[in-house]
Amino acid sequence: MNTAAPARPTPYYLSVLFNINYYLIGTMAMVRRDAALVALCCLVCVISKTTRTTASVVKLPKGFVACKRDEPGINSCIQQALQTAVPHLVKGIPSLGLIPIDPLIISQMDINQGASNGPLDIKLSFKDLYIHNIGSIKITSMKSNINNYTFNLKADFDEPLVLEGMYNIQGKIIILPIIGEGKSNLTLAALKVSIDINGKPVTRKGDEYMELESLELKFSTSRLYIQLDNLFNGDQLLGNNMNMFMNQNWREILKDLQPAFESALGMAFQSVTHQFFHKVPYGKIFN
After folding, report:
1. Residue 113 has what pLDDT?
2. What is the Cα–Cα distance from 227 to 255, expressed in whole angstroms?
3. Within its chain, how far is the Cα of 79 from the centroid?
4. CA–CA separation, 215 and 270 (whole Å)
5. Four-CA torsion 147, 272, 219, 286, nearest 10 degrees
């Protein structure tokens, strides 16, 4: 009776080679899988970066008109484009990060006016100052040098500019002492403004933008009306007399207050101008 030969054990070196081969195959599979995952991640990153780069370029918002920089009537085009844009600007443009500006809100404005050359020797501060009727602006002229990034515009306001807020004052106006705190109303009638804008070119991600360097605002008015409530701790007689006195001498008072008002209004217009030119490429505004 034939008996089967007993199974010969696998030599040790073959067992080692088999295990090494199995390990290498598994490792190579893992490497291929990891490489595929890395490649996929890189592809996703590239697509994501490309998407972000494309999305970061903001187009001229709806309602805004681009002007050709080499056209003969460029100033008229800019003037009309600005006037068309006013209703959109005063309501705010979320895509550009612009908040509504009518009313324009100034959280704090301080005026420390000495009496060295003027009629005022006062410390005057306003809080939560609301400026109404900015949307009534009408652009009357525009001068520009597109290649030098300089602009000058002149404008009138169809409605009086009204400044309402809380005030605190102490000091002297001409010869009379004044003290008080409460509600205030300053109204500038038939306001005219002149704004000078200067910028310089900057390049971001291949697109040219204008960086605002300076904005200077000057204004004139036919009349300043002043109403300060609760003067002299609520003494109505003294308060009424002081308000009457200030309105009779509004020109002298405005002469000292005007630089602070111009600075506050200029900073507000500067914020809007900076944000607009920072977001929208120069070539999309002037193509």
Report:
1. 79
2. 17
3. 21
4. 6
5. 20
Comparing C-alpha atoms, which of 123, 136, 229, 254 is closest to residue 177? Answer: 123
28 is written with which tokens?
């190579």
Tell me the whole-structure pTM to 2 decimals: 0.76
pLDDT at 267: 86
173: helix, strand or coil: strand
How many residues belong to the chain? 287
**Euclidean distance between CA atoms 164 and 105, whole angstroms:** 10
Tell me which residues of the chain have a pLDDT lower than 50.
1-55
Cα distances (Å, whole numbers) of residue 153 to 120, 233, 234, 274: 31, 44, 43, 16
Q: Is 280 exposed, middle or buried (0-12, 13-18, 19+ CB in 10 A)?
A: buried
Please give the order of strands across the beta sheet that includes 161-173: 104-113, 120-132, 161-173, 176-189, 223-228
| 45 Cβ contact list (under 8 Å, min separation 6) | none
Q: Which two tokens mark 5?
A: 């030969």
Instruction: Give the burial string for 64-75 (b: 16+ CB within 10 Å, else e).
Output: beebeeeeeebb
Which residues, in sequence order, are bridge partners of residue 209?
Answer: 202
**SS3 assignment, position 272:** helix
Per-residue pLDDT tens over the stretch 3-22: 444 444 444 333 433 343 44
